[in-house]
Write a structure and sequence with these properties.
Mean pLDDT: 77
Order of helices and strands: EEEHEHHH
Strand content: 5-15%
Distance between the termini: 93 Å
Structural class: alpha+beta
Largest sheet: 4 strands, antiparallel
Helix content: 25-40%
Number of helices: 4
Radius of gyration: 34 Å
Number of strands: 4
Strand order of the largest sheet: 2-3-1-4
Length: 136
């Protein structure tokens, strides 16, 4: 059995056939993986030699310690899963019942405007003067 460790487990490492390496997320964006399949071990060794994916081979004792750490502290994914399965209870009352109906921040004007606005004047060529530069 060979044991592997990967940082940034969210950044997947792919096999030549298009499938992902099956890492177990242990929290803190770290993943571990154990296998005894020769094909997967050979592909993992290729990735280690080429420096792809941040893959490192680890010992069995370190693998066991990391798995125990995962069991001891739930990962963010576990917390999110628990929140989806057990959502927070909803309020038994409506906020309007407690605080009352909201008043408008600005008074609403209902009277129509009787005055017409001044028409916009469009400047003509005579309104523009040549800029003064240099000596007067």
């Amino acid at each position: 059995m060979r044991y592997f460790y990967k940082e940034l487990v969210q950044t997947h490492l792919y096999l030549p056939n298009g499938k992902r390496f099956p890492f177990d997320d242990i929290g803190n964006s770290e993943g571990v993986w154990a296998t005894d399949e020769p094909y997967l071990i050979g592909e993992a060794e290729k990735a280690i030699r080429s420096g792809k994916g941040g893959l490192v081979e680890i010992s069995q004792s370190l693998y066991d310690d990391l798995i125990k750490k995962k069991i001891a502290s739930p990962s963010q994914n576990d917390l999110e899963r628990n929140q989806r399965l057990n959502p927070a209870p909803r309020l038994a009352f409506h906020p309007q019942e407690v605080f009352g109906k909201a008043e408008p921040a600005v008074a609403v004007v209902t009277a129509e405007r009787t005055e017409k606005p001044d028409p916009v004047t469009i400047p003509t060529k005579k309104d523009f003067k040549r800029p003064r530069t240099g000596r007067p």
